[in-house]
Inverse folding.
């Protein structure tokens, strides 16, 4: 067991660089810089080599680092995720990709019973410094088995950190922090924020990214838009939607504050509470399922701390406990679309 | 075989048996008259390994503390044979702060970085992490190996087959060991497994497969030697199945009403068999047997006393060690 010394880095401001990258390219740059710095870092998964990752999470890494450090695996998620855990126990820093988070059913034992529990079961004597990268989210008619977010499931289970970037800047800073972390970190990237040329995207999927390595601290949310009238707490692609709605509603005189959680475990409850204390109104937007998940956790955080912060009841926009449908009109009826967010904000500020 | 080695194998098996008998005694001591699985100084499920000592002694005799061993829900024999500290092992079983996992793990979840020993309570799921240990050893430029142990029931799990394929594909220095004790809790191998020997499954993964039929520690030692040597030489994994013996219940409290083979169990005790063989070879006499047993008892009782005198973890520390 070894712990790699990591250089101290001060995160540069997102606007400090004029260079703009897609989220996918920012993520890959972060991985490449850590692989350059630390020879114990390697990447393995399905189609992460010559293909470069189905969602461009590893583009160019094979060419740069070779097949000993960027490894295509058999379609054997239990075997290769468990391999990553064992290698991490012995001092390496693996990054293992689960192509779609929906596939967790074939390998979850390795993740929640092994990767996430070994440190605790060993009384802190064994560390498991690894990253699981995985694509999440829907919106492109991939159906019920290829469109889920499921971050609430992972964040519910103890022993693994969960980070969910929404911007290129955070994508690079969070992957860097995840690789350097001495704990298992599940890094969930929404296909819709990656800036892929073959999928509809928000302009926010491209943004300024400093060239030098930097960390975005795990467990720290960001107030990505300041406002007075209501707080929208959300994560991932829904941050893009919430900011779009906030821009529209500003013209109607509604001033929204938007909180991008960025990390779900640990959860930055303080930033949520400070914002709600300011606005008195809370809308949680979550592309995961409604019940027993993130939206309930945020609402409970406020209720447990001081329900008196709220001038009106909490509202939630999430997937209403149905499998993600295939047909476009059905899928967009259940996703947290701009229309659903706008409607919920209107109800919230009228209440 | 060298007589010193034969005596060493015998001593290891006796130490394991004495340890398991002591845990058996302590486990049941405060669960009378009515058996309550959650009561007493050693609560919870308890899977003891009496009868399976030849696997642990024969395989681990080829290993050093730098090699990894991944065991199952029935792990004590392998932990002891691989050299896990007896005091800290016993303390973990007693749920004490001085245990391997500071009382957070328990007898199915043992982790010892000093000897690279670990176990998994989930059938077959100890195999994949062993691949990673082997991968790391190879990448670090060493000739260390990882030994991954399961029971015969695990050979019907997906993780077993995924692991054999990946280990062979990447030529990882792994020795896969299957302890066939005939029973998956109450289900006999004949009702769970379509092949008479799991060793033949190795052919499907282009690796050597070998089955030791008679629970002989020397036969295990010889077969394991071939597999370990192959792994150390960088030639890839092997699969070794040992037809061993579960002398006691699946867990303590198991009445074993389903078992049709119990009558023959005493006659199959591998330690008694080996002791007889060593006596016949002139390597053991009454005095030496007594000495070996007394030495084992002294070490085991010291470990039990260490465990019992160690502090319990403080309740307010229950949420520590989730993250590093």
């Amino acid at each position: 067991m070894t712990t790699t010394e990591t250089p101290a880095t001060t995160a540069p401001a997102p606007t400090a660089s004029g260079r703009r990258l897609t989220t996918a390219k920012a993520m890959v740059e972060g991985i490449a810089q850590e692989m350059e710095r630390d020879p114990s870092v390697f990447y393995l998964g399905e189609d992460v080599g010559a293909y470069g990752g189905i969602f461009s999470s590893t583009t160019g890494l094979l060419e740069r680092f070779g097949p000993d450090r960027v490894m295509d695996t058999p379609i054997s998620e239990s075997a290769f995720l468990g391999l990553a855990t064992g290698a991490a126990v012995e001092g390496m820093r693996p990054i293992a990709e689960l192509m779609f988070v929906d596939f967790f059913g074939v390998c979850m034992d390795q993740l929640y019973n092994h990767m996430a529990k070994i440190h605790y079961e060993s009384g802190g004597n064994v560390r498991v410094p690894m990253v699981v990268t995985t694509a999440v989210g829907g919106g492109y008619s991939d159906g019920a088995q290829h469109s889920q977010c499921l971050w609430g499931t992972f964040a519910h289970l103890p022993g693994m950190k969960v980070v969910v970037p929404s911007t290129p800047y955070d994508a690079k800073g969070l992957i860097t922090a995840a690789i350097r972390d001495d704990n298992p970190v599940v890094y969930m990237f929404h296909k819709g924020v990656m800036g892929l040329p073959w999928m509809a995207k928000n302009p926010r999927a491209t943004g300024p990214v400093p060239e030098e390595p930097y960390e975005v601290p795990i467990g720290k949310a960001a107030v990505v838009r300041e406002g007075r009238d209501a707080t929208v707490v959300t994560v991932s692609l829904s941050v893009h939607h919430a900011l779009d709605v906030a821009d529209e509603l500003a013209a109607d005189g509604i001033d929204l504050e938007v909180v991008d959680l960025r990390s779900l475990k640990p959860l930055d409850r303080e930033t949520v509470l400070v914002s709600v204390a300011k606005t008195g109104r809370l809308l949680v937007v979550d592309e995961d399922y409604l019940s027993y998940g993130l939206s309930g956790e945020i609402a409970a955080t406020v209720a447990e701390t001081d329900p008196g912060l709220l001038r009106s009841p909490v509202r939630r926009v999430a997937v209403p406990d149905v499998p993600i449908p295939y047909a476009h009109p059905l899928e967009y009826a259940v996703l947290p679309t701009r229309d659903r967010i706008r409607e919920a904000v209107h109800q919230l500020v009228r209440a | 075989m060298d007589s010193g080695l034969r005596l060493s194998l015998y001593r290891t098996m006796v130490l394991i048996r004495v340890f398991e008998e002591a845990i058996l005694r302590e486990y049941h001591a405060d669960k009378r008259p009515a058996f309550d699985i959650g009561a007493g100084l050693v609560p919870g499920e308890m899977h003891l390994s009496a009868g399976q000592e030849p696997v642990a002694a024969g395989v681990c005799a080829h290993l050093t503390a730098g090699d990894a061993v991944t065991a199952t829900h029935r792990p004590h024999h392998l932990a002891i044979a691989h050299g896990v500290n007896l005091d800290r092992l016993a303390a973990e079983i007693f749920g004490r702060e001085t245990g391997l996992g500071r009382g957070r793990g328990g007898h199915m979840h043992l982790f010892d970085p000093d000897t690279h020993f670990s176990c998994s309570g989930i059938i077959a799921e100890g195999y994949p992490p062993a691949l990673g240990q082997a991968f790391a050893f190879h990448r670090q430029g060493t000739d260390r190996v990882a030994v991954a142990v399961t029971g015969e029931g695990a050979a019907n799990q997906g993780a077993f087959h995924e692991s054999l394929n990946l280990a062979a594909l990447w030529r990882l220095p792994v020795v896969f060991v299957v302890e066939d004790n005939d029973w998956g809790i109450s289900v006999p191998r004949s009702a769970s497994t379509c092949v008479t020997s799991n060793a033949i499954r190795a052919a499907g993964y282009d690796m050597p497969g070998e089955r030791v039929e008679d629970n002989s520690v020397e036969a295990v030692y010889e077969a394991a030697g071939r597999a370990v040597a192959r792994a150390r030489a960088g030639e890839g994994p092997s699969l070794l199945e040992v037809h061993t013996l579960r002398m006691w219940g699946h867990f303590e409290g198991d009445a074993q009403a389903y078992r049709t083979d119990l009558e023959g169990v005493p006659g199959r005790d591998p330690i008694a068999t080996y002791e007889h063989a060593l006596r016949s070879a002139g390597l053991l006499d009454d005095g030496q047997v007594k000495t070996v047993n007394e030495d084992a008892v002294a070490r085991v009782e010291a470990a039990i006393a260490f465990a019992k005198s160690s502090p319990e973890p403080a309740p307010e520390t229950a949420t520590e060690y989730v993250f590093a």
Chain B has one domain: 3-311. The radius of gyration of chain B is 19 Å. The beta strands of chain B are 68-71, 111-112, 117-119, 146-151, 174-180, 183-184, 187-188, 209-212, 238-243. The CA atoms of residues 46 and 67 of chain B lie 26 Å apart.
